[in-house]
Amino acid sequence: MPTALITGASRGLGASIARLLAPTHDLLLGGRPSTELDNIALQLDGATTWPVELTDADELAAATEAISELDVLVHNAGVISWGSIEDTPADEWRRVLEVNLIAAAELTRLLLPALRAARGHVVFINSGAGRHANPGWGVYAASKFGLRALADVVRAEEPSLRVTSIFPGRIDTDMQQELVAMEGGEYDATQFLLPDTVASAVVAAIHTPADAHPHEVVLKPTGRR
């Protein structure tokens, strides 16, 4: 079977993508070492944990060295940040950009030979914040606008690869609950996309026949369940 590497696979959207890809792919499940990551791997046949700190350049280089061919790379790992520009110090910009953008760029760079060997597919899980920047979202939006640019450039520079950016609206996850709490709002799960809904769109893009190249997928919640 083809092989897929999914970062941020221990919970939320990453875990949903892993479950839906498991029937057709051997999986490398990326994430920090945790019981959650181990449990997902145990649930899925052909899945192997890939416990790597994405912001550690040496660790990342060592972990990718043995991957000689890779059919699918899903960049799902990310962190959130919320606050005004006035209240956001430089260290927070560095933290968010390091995880959401720089780590994705470096992982892609290291895996380009393996992706080229398989004529592979790179999927960047972006956000509505990667298309429209709103008050309070400066740092996060900057990281996601950068991720969109990264995807566009990889697509242009690597004609043998397919590169897809997924732009979902807000998703009903633990991370979303943290964000709503930061904003001081009341959490209403019905206003957000289900993780499996977004995962289905990701997997559909991956399964798109080879004669088509899905560049971008935009999903917005309807408020209906």
UniProtKB/TrEMBL annotation:
Q: Does the keyword Oxidoreductase apply?
A: yes
- Record domain Ketoreductase: where: 2-174
Q: Which domain of life is it from?
A: Bacteria
Which controlled-vocabulary keywords does the entry list? Answer: Oxidoreductase
Pfam families in alphabetical order: adh_short
Kindly give the InterPro entries that the UniProt entry links to this protein: KR_dom, NAD(P)-bd_dom_sf, Sc_DH/Rdtase_CS, SDR_fam
Q: To which protein family does this belong?
A: Belongs to the short-chain dehydrogenases/reductases (SDR) family.
Q: What protein name applies here?
A: SDR family oxidoreductase
Instruction: State the organism of origin.
Output: Williamsia marianensis
